[in-house]
Amino acid sequence: MLNYIWAGLILLSFIASVFTGRTGQTAAAVFDGAKGAVQMCITLLGIMSLWTGLMKIGEKSGMTEKFAKLLSPVTRIIFPKLKTGSAAMNAIVMNMVANMFGLSNAATPLGLAAMRELEKINPRPGIASDEMCMFTVINTASIQIIPSTVIALRLANNSANPTGILLPVWIASLCSLTVGVVSANIMQRRQH
Predict the structure, then answer these.
(1) How far apart (Å, rounded) are the C-alpha atoms in residues 135 and 191?
(2) pTM of the model
(3) CA–CA dist 159, 151 (Å, integer)
């Protein structure tokens, strides 16, 4: 459906440019937009490559286990049915760490791996377990210590203070995570 909406908007824009005599300006805008998109992709590719590489190094060097131990007081409360050090818990922790550093693209494969691991231990396969629902909330409303993607976008667009968003991001992500976790707990208790 979204493809039809985008196609319709592009078509309407082109028709409007023909009727207003601005096809030259429209063509120039298309090429400028494409150029900007390529530059933005290259900028983000560099940031994502750096952080994805660091995440791989952290995984190979045993930092995952250290982060798991550091986050274990929180993860034990949020996921009481999961064992510390299990494949599901390790994938969840890696996803949480990637999200903390603002690496949503790097966090996605880790989130999918966590869901696969959670499905393996799901007592009702095909139906989302409490752990799967809680993980979805945590993945969606994660705390971002370093929102690297947003900072990279601000840098690419010549922001005077690209890191000026840190405090608002911390407050907003903490509030959304708190509300999400509390809501998920309330819903879980109502079902049982």
Answers:
(1) 17
(2) 0.67
(3) 9
